Amino acid sequence: MSKRKKIVVKIGSSLLANSDKLTLRYAFMNGLMSDLAQLQREGYDIILTSSGSVALGLNMVGKRPEDAGILDKQAAAACGQPLLMNAYRQVASEHGMGVAQMLVTVGDMEERRRFLNIKNTMLRLFENDILPIINENDSVATHDLRVGDNDRLSAKVAQMVQADLLVILTSVEGLYDRDPSDPDAKFISEIEDVSEHLESTTGISALGSGGMLTKMQAANMAQNAGVETIIAEGIIERPLSSVLKNERRYTRCLVTGETASPLKVWLSNRLQVAGTLVIPNAVAAAVAEGRCGISRSDIFSIQGDFTKGDVLHVYDEGGTEIARGLTNFSSEETMLMARNLDTPVENVIGYKTRSDVIAVENILVLRENHLPLDAPEHDPKFVTPV
């Protein structure tokens, strides 16, 4: 992998698109691309995660952001993405920089092989001094199957390429301890524990799908991958280099603790729950101590439709998420094995195996520096008799 410093930059819709006219802010885009081109010449490898396709396409489908449903937004994304990329291409070429488009879905980021394919593509683009511009493929995304916002997507990308820094440019200077409009609000310049600041992160922009909450979630994902995060205002002149040279204030989210292996980091930073298991408290304690995997006899309940190789979220009886791990079986096989404990596994699923449902080496135990996910509220597919 290249020894050049890698920076992932995330740009939100509110910086790229005028909220009233739903047209591009060319002044900001020109300042951004000029800055990125200069940094590229100085030896940085840069990835841009960019929102904006939905906002730019809404005029073409005759909708406003507040009135658009999921089908309207999908159609708007299909209309707006060519406009966005054409603008990036034109502005970048004025500064002597080549760009490439990469549209991804949640499945691309969650399935290990596709995840690595995306990584390898970006590394090859770096070798040719081409700027990858990544966005979620909003034209096929739905509420139930999507990355959710480009803040967390940018953190996944930073994890993927083992970036040195994630910079999230937004419409405010950084994080405050309460609503910035409050005269008593205090600016927070440095964060170690993201969870301490979640209560002050409500609210989203008119055009964006996330707010400061998703930025904090992204910062936590980046922290766990060993990547420092900066949240700063997206100004027109030198929006990135002015931050790198410490010329204005911003919020810095530090990396704390020891970074896990790339596989364990990938396990921890999930964008979608493939499935869940609930296990007894005694087993949960043993799993948390790294003493065992999860066998079919350990399962209280199963939720979700998952396949072999998916990442499952593991909860104790009280609904606290304790771990995440790669499953060796599908949800159907897991249910059959858990329901028929007195029958040999090969007679239940049709082939011999000595594997646990989740092997101990494929489990990531959640520590204090991970933000857990609340247990799903839908009914489990299977509950063991107790």
Automatic annotation (TrEMBL):
It catalyses: L-glutamate + ATP = L-glutamyl 5-phosphate + ADP. Pathway: Amino-acid biosynthesis; L-proline biosynthesis; L-glutamate 5-semialdehyde from L-glutamate: step 1/2. Residues 275-358 form the PUA domain. SUPFAM superfamilies: Carbamate kinase-like (SSF53633), PUA domain-like (SSF88697). Its main location: cytoplasm. It holds the Pfam family AA_kinase. It is found in: Cytoplasm. Gene3D superfamilies: Acetylglutamate kinase-like, PUA domain. Keywords: Amino-acid biosynthesis, ATP-binding, Cytoplasm, Kinase, Nucleotide-binding, Proline biosynthesis, Transferase. Substrate binds at S51, D138, N150. Its EC number is 2.7.2.11. GO terms for biological process: L-proline biosynthetic process. CDD domains: AAK_G5K_ProB (cd04242). One of its GO terms (cellular component) is cytosol. One of its GO terms (molecular function) is glutamate 5-kinase activity. Catalyzes the transfer of a phosphate group to glutamate to form L-glutamate 5-phosphate. NCBIfam families: proB. Belongs to the glutamate 5-kinase family. This is Glutamate 5-kinase.
